[in-house]
Amino acid sequence: MIDRYTRDEMGRVWSLDNQYQSWLEVEIAVDQAWADYGEIPQSDVDAIKKKAAFSSQRIAEIEAKTHHDVVAFTRDLSESLGSEKRWIHFGLTSTDVVDTAQGLRLKQANAIILQDLQKYLSQIKSMALKYKNTVMIGRTHGVQAEPTTFGLVLARYYAETQRNIDRFTRTSRAVETGKLSGAVGTFANIPMEVQDNALRQLGLSSQPVTSQVLPRDLHADYINSIALIATGIENFATEIRGLQRTEIHEVEENFAAGQKGSSAMPHKRNPIGSENVTGLARVIRGHMQTAMDDICLWHERDISHSSAERIILPDSTILIDYILDRFTNILQKLAVFPEE
């Protein structure tokens, strides 16, 4: 995602360095699990924990020759180690590391999004209580109908947000998962006990059944929950845009000192924030189709999902983080005109 819509904390989650750091954490957790299983020396694992290091630049140099990012990563790690390097990637296939490390980064992203959601929910609640008895005209088909209150309008969005939090909590936990079952998922080269031990160390759940990859319906469900959050905010933003129209003018987004509404019409005060989140919600909904398409893989594994997920998972989480933060700030500074 472009810098314009990337907040620092979420941007760090999806940085290249954090990708490699999460891969390293998986490799170390697996080696510790092997040691606990009695297969490799604890002294070698201790040496790996102390000495293992990576260089993004060096990985890029190796990948230019191998055309395989995990191979490049493991070779770079090995360059920082002594004889204990023989345990790096022991019993694993590339997707074990990539899928499990992705679960780690999604867990980091989910913690940020849940904080955003709680802040957003709290803001709606305070406004719903404040404007509980603020009478306004209700509209159906965009036409004046019967009186309602602004507090009731806000309460609808509060209830919708509660549902979105429930959905996101469920789907986010589902993608905080991993698999370490080796090539085609048969555990031929790694015991299930090693997998479950390593995943416990990482704070991830174990999938009951996998192929060489995690099942992608988990991720499709997750992206869908993010899209519903974005669409709920778009729903609310559309209401603000409608109520800010000149002929209605019951609410108005904050207009900061020095802000300009138009290069040609300086009198304009446009609901640009609500329009911005509306457009970004459309982008997230577009990722839903890709996430659904990623479910269908050939036999035990292909990588048709991989290139797509390098885009849709970072972009969806980065955008929902931005949207939630921006729209919460819009609500905090929203001008309400009861007399209108």
Automatic annotation (TrEMBL):
<dbReference type="InterPro" id="IPR022761">
    <property type="entry name" value="Fumarate_lyase_N"/>
</dbReference>
<dbReference type="InterPro" id="IPR004769">
    <property type="entry name" value="Pur_lyase"/>
</dbReference>
<comment type="pathway">
    <text>Purine metabolism; AMP biosynthesis via de novo pathway; AMP from IMP: step 2/2.</text>
</comment>
<dbReference type="InterPro" id="IPR000362">
    <property type="entry name" value="Fumarate_lyase_fam"/>
</dbReference>
<dbReference type="InterPro" id="IPR020557">
    <property type="entry name" value="Fumarate_lyase_CS"/>
</dbReference>
<comment type="similarity">
    <text>Belongs to the lyase 1 family. Adenylosuccinate lyase subfamily.</text>
</comment>
<feature type="domain" description="Fumarate lyase N-terminal">
    <location>
        <begin position="6"/>
        <end position="286"/>
    </location>
</feature>
<comment type="pathway">
    <text>Purine metabolism; IMP biosynthesis via de novo pathway; 5-amino-1-(5-phospho-D-ribosyl)imidazole-4-carboxamide from 5-amino-1-(5-phospho-D-ribosyl)imidazole-4-carboxylate: step 2/2.</text>
</comment>
<dbReference type="GO" id="GO:0016829">
    <property type="term" value="F:lyase activity"/>
</dbReference>
<protein>
    <recommendedName>
        <fullName>Adenylosuccinate lyase</fullName>
        <ecNumber>4.3.2.2</ecNumber>
    </recommendedName>
</protein>
<keyword id="KW-0456">Lyase</keyword>
<dbReference type="InterPro" id="IPR024083">
    <property type="entry name" value="Fumarase/histidase_N"/>
</dbReference>
<dbReference type="InterPro" id="IPR008948">
    <property type="entry name" value="L-Aspartase-like"/>
</dbReference>
<dbReference type="Pfam" id="PF00206">
    <property type="entry name" value="Lyase_1"/>
</dbReference>
